[in-house]
Amino acid sequence: MAFRVSAVQYHLHTISSFGEFAAECEHYIKTAGEYGAEFILFPEFLTTQLMSIGGEDGEALGIEDLPQFTDRYLEMFSGYARKYAVHIIGGTHVLRRSGKLYNVAHLFYPDGRIAEQAKLHITPAEVEGWNMGAGEELQVFQTDHGTIAMLTCYDIEFPEIVRMARAKGADVIFCPSCTDDRHGFHRVRYTSHARAIENQVYVVLTGTVGSLPTVDLMRANFGQAAIITPNDIPFPPQGLLAEGEINNDMIITADLDLELLYRVREHGSVTTWRDRRTDLYTDWT
């Protein structure tokens, strides 16, 4: 009932080719593999690094250009998931559908399957700066190690959507994030702890570090990975299995024991999932 997860504090910097991007991603995957990770989480807007390659005019690509890399992105991470026999949450990548751009998290299974979850809540900056569209449906995903959900950055700040994920059976929420300052970072970090406590789930969180000086909206990043638990006696007192060093290029790793979740839901110091007052407020099934 236990499995190992790694979260990558991915360092964004200017690159010159897709091959360079692929080599850097493989470096992190190999590193996590040396620690025996069975799930590897990359951050939100991971592929914006590809915009720094630039076009024929020497200028950085725009967000509308990112979908041209979709086939190579899918092939790359799917290949790595099969090669290294791991589940990879490949951060998020921007897709174009029906003339609209969407910020989409992807789960790459070791057997080659690919699942996706579009970001459901879009920040004002994403709307105004990139005209990003919102996803329409929450899904959870069955794996050999249990049921997971992928909720991207701003999504974790909405308690209703995480409650829905838990009601659908998710025990682990993977949250790829990208925040540019301390305020945004702490909004995501604090609400991740709240969601873990409210729903008695694990939250695996990471964000981008470094900068892309030529790419609009990606010139500043403030990030720190964390593997977050409910706050109860079987878990660390601060609800933290592991956390990275702020703004450093690194990976964190920890084991998630689902049996501990099931135990605290039934016999914990508090039983927040079982004790919800569905006679007073809306519940999801």
Sum this structure up briefly:
The chain contains six helices and 15 strands. It is of the alpha/beta class.
Describe the structure.
Belongs to the carbon-nitrogen hydrolase superfamily. NIT1/NIT2 family. This is Amidohydrolase. InterPro entries: C-N_Hydrolase, C-N_Hydrolase_sf, UPF0012_CS. With 285 residues, the chain is of the alpha/beta class. It contains six helices and 15 strands. Strands 1, 3, 4, 5, 6, 7 and 15 form a seven-stranded mixed β-sheet that branches. Strands 8-9-10-11-13-14 form a six-stranded mixed β-sheet, with helices on one face. Helix 1 (18-34) packs parallel to helix 2. The protein is globular.
SSE diagram, text form:
Elements: E1 2-9, E2 11-12, H1 18-34, E3 39-41, H2 70-84, E4 87-97, E5 100-108, E6 114-118, H3 124-130, E7 132-133, E8 141-143, E9 146-150, H4 159-167, E10 172-177, H5 182-199, E11 202-207, E12 209-210, E13 226-228, E14 240-243, E15 250-257, H6 258-267
Parallel strand pairs: 1-3, 2-12, 3-4, 5-7, 9-10, 10-11
Antiparallel strand pairs: 1-15, 4-5, 5-6, 8-9, 11-13, 13-14
Helix and strand run: EEHEHEEEHEEEHEHEEEEEH
Mean pLDDT: 97
| Proportion of residues in helical segments | 25-40%
Low-confidence runs: none
Taking Cα atoms only, what radius of gyration do you get, to the nearest Å?
18 Å
**Broad shape:** globular
Number of helical elements: 6
Count of extended strands? 15
Structural class label: alpha/beta
Strand content: 25-35%
Q: What is the terminal separation in angstroms?
A: 24 Å
Main pleated sheet: 7 strands, mixed
Family: Belongs to the carbon-nitrogen hydrolase superfamily. NIT1/NIT2 family.
Pfam families: CN_hydrolase
Organism: Paenibacillus silagei
Domain CN hydrolase: 3-258
